[in-house]
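Here is the promised in-class demo. Please do not try to memorize the tokens; focus on the logic of going from shape to residues.
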């Protein structure tokens, strides 16, 4: 038996094979489902409790100070000199930026003041301290 070639002639083919596209989309969906919860892990800081007040500012930088006095700017560990330099470059680009400081409740008071002084020295006047609601 001899196979015959299919003759399409002037006929337009309307079929699109989407099997590989569906495979790619399912793979991306699975990756997103796995990675999304890991994004919000952040730095482990035990916040002190106080009555919270919301701040309505679009550009908020987060500075975290852990119980072993490590400083993180937006999740990246920085030294105090690097903190000042990076805050200066951010402030020159966006003068309306606000800073939210997340400091561990067991941290010595002086380290928090050093971070606040670094923020104020750059010229940033919008400064807030993160707390957790009282139990």
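The designed amino acids, position by position:
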């Amino acid at each position: 038996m001899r196979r015959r070639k299919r003759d399409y002639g002037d006929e337009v083919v309307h079929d699109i094979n989407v099997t590989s596209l569906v495979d790619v989309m399912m793979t991306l969906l699975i990756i997103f489902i796995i990675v999304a919860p890991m994004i919000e892990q952040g730095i482990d800081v035990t916040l002190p409790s106080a009555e919270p007040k919301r701040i309505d500012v679009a550009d908020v930088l987060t500075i975290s100070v852990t119980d072993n006095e490590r400083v993180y700017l937006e999740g990246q560990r920085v030294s105090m000199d690097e903190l000042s330099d990076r805050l200066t470059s951010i402030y020159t680009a966006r003068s309306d930026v606000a800073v939210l400081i997340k400091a561990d409740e067991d941290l010595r008071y002086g380290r928090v003041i050093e971070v606040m002084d670094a923020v104020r020295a750059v010229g940033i006047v919008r400064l807030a301290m993160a707390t957790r609601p009282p139990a």
